[in-house]
Amino acid sequence: MVSARSAKRVLCVVGARPNFMKIAPVMRALNAAGNRLDARLLHTGQHYDAAMKQSFFEQLRIPEPDIDLGVGSASHAVQTAEIMKRFEPVVDELKPDAVLVVGDVNSTIACALVAVKKQVPVIHVEAGLRSGDRTMPEEINRVLTDQISDLLFTTERDGEINLLREGVDAARVHFVGNVMIDTLLYNLEEAVPFAETIKVYVKGKPVSNFSSGYGLVTLHRPGNVDDPVVLDRLLRTLVMLSEAKPLIFPVHPRTMQCIRRAGLEHLMSGANLLALPPLGYLNMLGLMKDASVVLTDSGGIQEETTALGVPCLTLRENTERPVTVSEGTNTIVGSDPDKIALCFTDVMETGGKVGRVPEYWDGRAAERIALVVENWLC
Ligand code: UD1
């Protein structure tokens, strides 16, 4: 890392779990960029549990953050406001030449908004994704962050089309590929095999029925887990599907809270549905790589399954990552139990969609980003 002030200082922001795999290659590439950039890392503290934060820093070898704002959980308004309040003095003190944000979480918009009002240029990695669904908090964060960004890096061709439609100057937009896939390719050989993960995370439950194939589940979107009726229906559907193919379900903390609040823990204890705590990146990668099918409402997992060639059923009505459907292995299924069962059976019978890896998902997106940032700032 360069400490001389002659280097251009880029303050990189992370906050929530899906940010960590995006920032790892970006930090590496910025700090390797011919000694002309000085990348610093700030964690807002949006995600703070060891399983949601520290294990990712360790497994992905992300340097400890230079600054931790320690905001924690709260309502969207309080969390966003708190990040802004705590971020402003950091910008005053560090005087970055640019603030770099990734993804679409509350930390992304909060820090971008502070920076732009202080006339510090904003760089957005993973710009231009649109689900068209403004009931999703992430969609609001995406639209607003892109409007106030000076440099926008897109992961798929549709991103630029969306940005131009919203009046963003084409000169600011760079199609570079997908930094999440940089991380996946970089770490693939170290992915932890199923048997190892089970040894660490499962105690006292027989798991022999999982060794001849399994599906992998993740769920955390408010639209799927906040309403007890919707959650009950989804969990019953999973229990039913698990009779045909055992399912492994690492449970996000917000989902676990919703399950407890709705009194639905009994649905999580079936012999063929294995509930686990949130997993480390390399553990999740190992499970995903070898899964027969993945059922998810995550954005990143739609991309990772496409890169791995594993069939993915997305339990949402839309996606902001259409290339995973048009080219990849993703199918948008929604949350209707019959439709989910139909698509699941189809994957079991046919092996599922065979996709191809999208353009520039080649492990070098962060290098392209660093090159553009360096030329732009220096
Ligand atoms: C956030 C992102 C979402 C992303 C997800 C990945 C926003 C608006 N949403 O959603 O886009 O897909 O992260 O995980 O930024 N909690 C813990 N421990 C933690 C963090 C959270 O227990 O370390 C619990 C808290 O009860 C908290 C709840 O999870 O209230 C939700 O956390 P929050 O960061 O608000 O949103 P996520 O649902 O995690």
Describe the protein in words.
The protein is an alpha/beta fold. It has 16 helices and 13 strands. 45% of the residues lie in helices and 15% in strands. It has helices at residues 17-31, 54-59, 76-94, 106-117, 137-147, 157-165, 179-187, 194-201, 222-225, 228-244, 253-261, 281-289, 299-308, 323-326, 337-350, 365-377, and strands at 8-14, 37-43, 67-68, 98-102, 122-127, 151-154, 173-175, 215-218, 247-250, 273-276, 293-296, 312-314, 330-332. The strands form 2 sheets. A 7-stranded parallel beta sheet has the order 3-2-1-4-5-6-7, with helices on both faces. The chain has a 6-stranded parallel beta sheet with strand order 10-9-8-11-12-13, sandwiched between helices. Uridine-diphosphate-N-acetylglucosamine binds next to helix 1, helix 5 and helix 11.
List keywords for this structure.
alpha/beta, 7-stranded parallel sheet, binds uridine-diphosphate-N-acetylglucosamine, 6-stranded parallel sheet, 378 residues, 45% helix
Strand order of the largest sheet: 3-2-1-4-5-6-7
Strand content: 5-15%
Low-confidence spans: none
**Taking all residues together, what is the mean pLDDT?**
96
Tell me the distance between the termini. Answer: 16 Å
Bound molecules: uridine-diphosphate-N-acetylglucosamine
Report the count of strand segments. Answer: 13
Q: Please provide the ordered H/E string of secondary-structure elements.
A: EHEHEHEHEHEHEHHEHHEHEHEHEHEHH
Describe, in short, the structure shown.
The protein is an alpha/beta fold. It is 45% helix and 15% strand.
